[in-house]
Amino acid sequence: MDTAGAYGGGKAGGAFDPQAFIQRPPVIVRAVCWLFSVIVMGCISAKGWYVSKADGYEYCVYNDDTNACNYGVGISVIAFVASIAFIAGEYLFEQMSSVKTRKHYVLADMGFSAFWAFLYFVGFCYLSNAWGKTETPPVGTANNMQGAIAFCFFSIFAWVACAFFAFQRFRMGADAAFAPAYEVEGAGSPGAFPAYPGAPDPQPAYSDPPFSQPHTGNVDYTAPTY
After folding, report:
1. What whole-number distance in Å separates Cα of residue 63 and Cα of residue 110?
2. Mean pLDDT by 10 residues, the chain (226 residues)
3. In contact, 5 and 176? CB cutoff 8 Å
4. Residue 198 burial by CB count (10 A; 0-12/13-18/19+): exposed, middle or buried?
5. What's the pTM value of the predicted model, to 2 decimals?
6. Any idea what the Cα angle at residue 168 is, between residues 76 and 190, rounded to 5°?
């Protein structure tokens, strides 16, 4: 099946161009999502926990709320893995020969990206609220905690951009699926419907009428009298 242009992708089996691949906007934005997830994980994992001198237990810097640290690290770990998976999917997307497979990939990309943008929005609100209630954070932890909040905020727009590019692909595929026959390349002249196999020629070659042959003899066309 010829899938050239299906859901914004090239023809299946085409040559792979590394330079063109890394310059694609979806690939660039996905790499940004990967980078932001690494930063959030690094900020919280490095300075997000401290050991209390009173009881020796480990607490989260965000108002001693363990769930806040776990939430920030959790969504970032999944975002880290998902970003790598979707970058690999961008490479495999060109190799997908089935239009239905491409459609499923685009829908999965759009749904996951939109959902993770929402989770990062929740994380931004959650961490900001917990940090605002923190009275005396340990020395040297403020920059990391504020950095994690900031990059949670940036991640919202990065994942929204991924969902937007996926939506554009889906719309391209839907428009191609419902395009009129006269807009399909190679369908013939505008307004013409494609003929089914074995159909007669819509413009047959006309022959002379059978009674138009010239007469060789003298014929009397006078009406008989009674």
Report:
1. 35
2. 50 70 92 97 93 85 94 97 94 81 90 97 97 91 95 97 93 64 45 50 53 53 53
3. yes
4. exposed
5. 0.72
6. 165
For residue 59, the surrounding DSSP H or E stretch is: strand 58-60
Residue with tokens 């690094």, as numbered in its chain: 42
Q: Which tokens is 43 given?
A: 């900020």
Q: How many CB atoms neighbour CB 61 within 10 A?
A: 23
CA 108 to chain centre: 8
Q: Tell me the CB-side half-sphere exposure of residue 149, using CA atoms within 13 A.
A: 17
Helix H or strand E segment including 40: helix 25-47
Contact by Cβ (8 Å): 190, 183:
no
Question: Nearest CA to 148 among 128, 134, 122?
Answer: 128
Which residue type sits at 139? Answer: V
User: What's the rounded Cα separation, in Å, for the pair 47 and 139?
Assistant: 10
Element (H, E) at 153: helix 142-177
CA separation for the pair 124, 110 (Å, rounded): 21
Location of structure tokens 């014929």: 219
Alpha-carbon span 97 to 106, nearest angstrom? 14
